[in-house]
Request: fold
Amino acid sequence: MERPAGIFDIRYEQDMAFVRTGPQWACLTGFLFLLALLPLFAGSYFLGFMILTGIALIAVLGLNILTGYAGQISLGHQAFVAVGAYTTAVLMDSFHWSFWATVPLAGIAAAAVGVLFGLPSFRLKMLYLAMSTLAAQFIIIAFFNHAFPDYFRAVGGIRVNRPELAGIDFRNNEAFYYVVIVITVLMTFFAKNLVRCRLGRAFVALRDNDLASEVIGINVAKYKLYAFAIGCFYAGIAGSLWATYYRSVNPLHFHLEVSIWYLGCLIVGGMGTVVGAVFGVLFLRTMKEIVVIVSPILGELVSPIDAPKIGPALGVISWALVVILFLIFEPRGLAHTWEMLKSRFRHWPFKYAL
Amino acid sequence: MSIFLQFIIGGMFLGGMYTLIALGIVIIYKSTRVFNFAQGWMVTLGAFMLVTLIGKFGVVVGVIAGLAFGVLLGMVIERLFMRPMIGQPLIAALLLTIMLAHVIEGINILTWGSIGYDLPLKLPGQSIKLGGVVISHALLWGIGVAVAAFVAFSFFYWRTLMGRVMRATAEDHQVAQSLGLPVKGVFSLSWVLAGLLSVIAGIFLGVVSGVHYLMYTALLGAIPVVLLGGIDSIAGAIVGGMILGVLQSLVAGYLNSALTEVVPYIVLLLILVIKPYGLFGLVRIERL
Reply:
């Protein structure tokens, strides 16, 4: 890896460190402070945006481990988010559990379902595996829609209350923001660390060439299931927060389109980099909000009959088209652009270094 | 017994629909090795376009204009989106068609909104009654078109030069290009054929069930059909379509109707686990 000029690693700890230089420390602490102080000056709308971005980021980080690092394409990630959401909702609604106890359980439940639907990956890869996860998407959602109406409440959905802890009421966005942001930061840190350890390196080897990685002693079947378990654990945590943020769970929330939107975030950001997942989610979430703001303005320009069509249509076209443009012109995503930018900055005024 | 037969006939009808969509996917896969996820959405767009064109120009001109639109649609998609994907990883092309599906969905909503339309078109002929079982003439038309397409495409792929070029391109884009084969032309032609097929499928679907932008949810059932029959097998598209259509109809009739929507995906999962290359697909063996 490239270092800023004058920085040399002389000990192994330095070589492995997350944060290397003073300015990096300053940026990191500054950013975390900014996140922590945000509710003081941001409105409720912006906090809602940040909460949804955080939830989407957790889900996309999971998909990044599964698809970006381990190379197992999943078209059904939102179904695993649904498993987490339903776990939290049912445990709180029917069994009166505390929210805090359901969060890890939601992750574990989603991981278990993910491993179950990851079993076909022993025999399948690429296109065929993608299709089996597509099947997972429809089967899981239909299960919640039709099975056990006493618990899952079919189309009506389940109402979920926001939690309380030590006298703090998490019903307003300011308090709930901290729950989401703390979990998001922890999960991002965990993801970043995971992909540097033995497990993450095995995933990358698996993605690049599964036959070769089998030869050098990686148990391909086992690591594929690990990838499914970890990726879906993330999805489950995201689902748990999703359920409590929206205060209701409904099979209609967990549409195929959202699964594909997660994949779109990965493509825009750049598959197989943690920073890419962050960039991708921020980019597409921001675009979604812009569409929400712009479409009523555009709606006034056309006839009143056409006006209600613009919002949903633009909402779909905008992100899908952006993802297509990234696939064609910058398949390595924003993460690559960011690296190029940094490298350009470091080598200035030279065009390139050795 | 006659109810059972009626379910079978209804299932064959559904299977015919699946087959027509599946054929579009199979043709693109067979000639370019790209899996076209967007075929169901293209069919919806074709059907919507037919509604508008027939409403404007009458039946005969409308249908011809619709078919021309199908050709144009295929060409535009190929030129704008698929050509940069030649030689790229196949998974990138798959992701691109998935995103393309959503662009088409947005266009459908933007142009036609979320209301349903009827296709003002009647297929010639009348439904036949055979001992208590009503066989719709639309079914006979659907099966007829599917079989005709099967014969035509089988001949095309196995006997004509262009068909062979297409199969060679599917093996490896770069090698085909190095051998001087017209890879761009193959991409273009296969997408034009798929566009044409999507409009033809749109005619039948529109006549039978009307057109709505959510139609793709039912049409996604064509993806299990493709994988059941074998992703590169034209006969597989027909056999798979019929098996799945009849199965779905029987489940709806005799078991829980809630199960109907997941039957294709349960079949898909089973076939992927048991026989990943489908009933008639070419088995590609990977060894060290």
Observations:
- The interface with chain A takes residues 35, 81, 84-85, 88, 90-92, 94-96, 98-103, 105-107, 109-110, 113-114, 220, 223-224, 227, 231, 256, 258-259, 261-262, 265-266, 268-269, 272-273, 276, 286, 288 of chain B (CB under 8 Å).
- Chain B has a mean pLDDT of 84.
- The longest strand of chain B covers residues 128-130.
- Residues 7 and 249 of chain B are 6 Å apart (CA to CA).
